[in-house]
Structure prediction request, 573 residues.
Amino acid sequence: MRKQPMNSNTACVCLFNVCRSAPRAQCASRLFLLMAAAPLSPLYLGLDFSTQQLKVVAIDGDLSVVHQDAVQFDSELPHYRTRGGVHIHADKLTVTSPVLMWVQALDLLLDKMKRAGFDFSRVEALSGSGQQHGGVFWKKGAAQTLARLDPGQNLYQQLQDGFSVQDSPVWMDSSSSQQCRDLQKAAGGALRLAEITGSRAYERFTGNQISKLLQTRSDQFQDTERISLVSSFAASLFLGGYAAIDYSDGSGMNLLDIRARNWSQICLDATAPDLDRLLGAPLPSTAVLGSVSSYFVHRFGFSESCRVVAFTGDNPASLAGMRLHQGDMAVSLGTSDTVFLWLQEPRPALEGHVFCNPVELQAYMALLCFKNGSLTRERVRNQCAAGSWEAFSDALKETPLGNNGNIGFYFDTMEITPPAVGVHRFDSNDREVSQWSPEVEIRALVEGQFLSRRLHAERLGYSIVPGTRVLATGGASANQQILQVLSDVFNAPVYTIDLSDSTCLGSAYRALHGLVADSGVSFLEVVKKAPEPQLVCTPHPTAQQVYNQMLKRFAQLEERVLQRTEPTNESRS
Ligand code: 5FX
Prediction:
């Protein structure tokens, strides 16, 4: 028997059974039977700093989930008095979250994992994501605090004085309309800004929030030594130093030139002085930023070699979790519907967002949000199918593809894409009508929603090519007839994918990929062992002809609907 120095990766049995209570270092016998000469398999951590909670998932090299945990901000950190993780201010436009709540949530999460016996020494790499657009303002001197964290104290105790702004603006904020107008003017218009940064000016985008801080609380701005996104802030905690903003989440700031993959000088100049220094240089989303700081080694038992892979936004991380391929589209059918696209050549437009792709350097992704999703489907189900999904599905089955030329727009609340409101019905001669039979109304709603998803996706550069897959997730993806319409409108097969925690899982996958990305190994190669999506529908043979025609009319009718809608407070000029 060979005596070996123990590390926590090595399973052992003490012959005299004294180890159970005594720490290894104090073991009297120093006589171990090595049960497993090979170290336990490595693990990869994915964290998600989302709006309402901090979540973690650990996977092994086979991509199996071995540990999950979460901290709910409202209930587990009640002293911050957040609702849904945020504070909505009196003006109803300003929405913030306490930055120290996020710090304390990390303390709590890691303590929970430790108590659950999670073996941090097995973590070979970690990565994570954060709600997009939120800004964290580090106070002068915070870099030193981060670099000298004392493992005897928690992060919260040591970072009390680390931030120049205590309440971080988050993605739900819409208080920077003036700054949006100013930025668009400086960039040469909304479309020009979208061509540079991937999006026209949006109030929640970080650059406009930075500009607002400078104009309204310049003392706090002056006291700032670094600005992070929620994602890069979280990575900074693990690194013990400021983490770079990654290209993908950086695309949600109205500051990054998404083609040059660097800050746009026009946008920097229009936003705040000396901003490139405050932001640091952006890096690819697959970059290994360094190893965890000694704080995590000593306090939790992480290995000194545990790598920190750039953190990114929650939507980019979710694209990774869904393992989207080139040409794929993912549709999440939830309270609001979200569409993710993998794009090779983007065409930024006035609606939607184009971000750098989080898993492939040369590619892009697009994100489109549609506010009138499941709630509108439920309203129409209640009115036209007596509240029954079965009757709703029967109506879809009994009505023809193309609905005999009837086209409807259903915006119960002001829509994001496009910014229009109200219910608008047009017959096959493009004449406005006030009502239809329940069956026609149901088909018009579902076709109208998916024609809109297709129209706006195509405007951003998406095209349906052989091999295109549509991945459906979210509540309504359980309804086969709704998915059949989706398949017909896109003339593509529809697959479903179980996506509980796609964001966290995507971050864990990215941690694993980050270790090999530099050697040219693709993300899809690394995640090929993950379960495949299930094929549920294929398009009807006549679908292409019916919906290609219908899409043209739909686009013209949408213009008519838009002309009747007042512009929103978000600047479209
Ligand atoms: C995307 O642009 C958004 O604002 C949201 O999806 C946030 O990322 C939610 F965390």
Notes: The longest helix spans residues 438-459. The longest strand covers residues 53-60. Confidence is low (pLDDT under 50) at residues 1-37, 568-573. Residues 381 and 388 are 7 Å apart (CA to CA).
